[in-house]
Amino acid sequence: MSRLDLVILMRPSAEADFRPAGPVPKWFEDVFGSGALLAERSPFLCDFLAGAARDCWQGGQEEVESGIWEESGVEGEYRFFEARALKEEGQEVLVLSLANQKHRSEQRYLQYAHEVSLHQRRLAKERERKDILLDCIVHDLSNPLSIILMNLQFVEGQLDREDLRQALARAGVQAERQRELIHFVAEAFHSELTQFEPALLAKEQGVDWWEVAVESRESHRLLAEKQGVSVRLEAVPGGTVPTVLAERTHLARVTQNVLERALRRSSRGDEVVLSLAPSQGGVRLTVREETPLTAEEAAFFAASSASAFAATPASPQGLGLYFCKMAVELWGGKIGPEAPGEEGHHGLWLELKEQPTQSLARRTFAS
Question: Does Phosphoprotein count among this protein's keywords (predicted)?
Answer without folding.
Answer: yes
